[in-house]
Amino acid sequence: ANKKGRSTMTDYVLENWKKYLKEDKKKEEDAKNHGAGFIIISNSGEDVLLIRRSEGSNLGELTGPGGGMEAGESPFETAVRETKEEIQKSFEGREPEGSGYVREQNGFTFTTFLMHSVDNFDCKLNNEHDAWGWVDIEQVEDAIVNNRELVSNKFKDRDNKPIKEVRAKIFHGVADAIKHFTKNFK
To answer: Is-contact 96 113, C-beta < 8 A?
Structure first.
C-alpha cells in the first residue's frame, strides 16, 4: 500500500482510467471537426448518384451521402456508416478508390471518397433527404461549371415514385469533389 492507504494496483487502474478518458475526449473533439462521404458513380462512369437534403444544413441542395464523424472512426468508416444510414446501401468490406478528396473550410475537414457501383441501385432515404437520382455525369458537370441549378427528371421521392422535375443547386463541397474526381478519372 502507498502513503494514502491505496494499493499500487488501485493507483495503476486510476491512472489508466484517466488516460483512457482523456483519449476518448480527444477522439470526440477530433470527430466534431471532421466528416466524410461518398461520390457514387455508376460502373460505366456515365451517372452519379445525388440526393436532395430535406433538413438541416444545405437544405434543398443536392449532395452525396455523408456526414459527421463519430469518435474513433476513420473517414472511410464514417462514409460507409453515413451511406448505410442515409440511403440504405452498404459498402462495408469495400476499399476506398484512392485516398479521397479532402476539403477544409472554417475549421471543418470533410473527406469525400469515390465509389463505383456495379448497378444503379434504388435508394431508401432516411428523413434527412427527400429525393434521389442517378443523373448523367455530363449534365452534373455542366451545372457545376456554369454555376447553375441542376434540372433533371431522373429523381425519385422517398417512396421511389418519379418526380416530374427537380431544380436544385449542387452543394459546393460535392461540386468540388466531383470536379476533382472527374478530372482524375477522364
So the answer is: yes
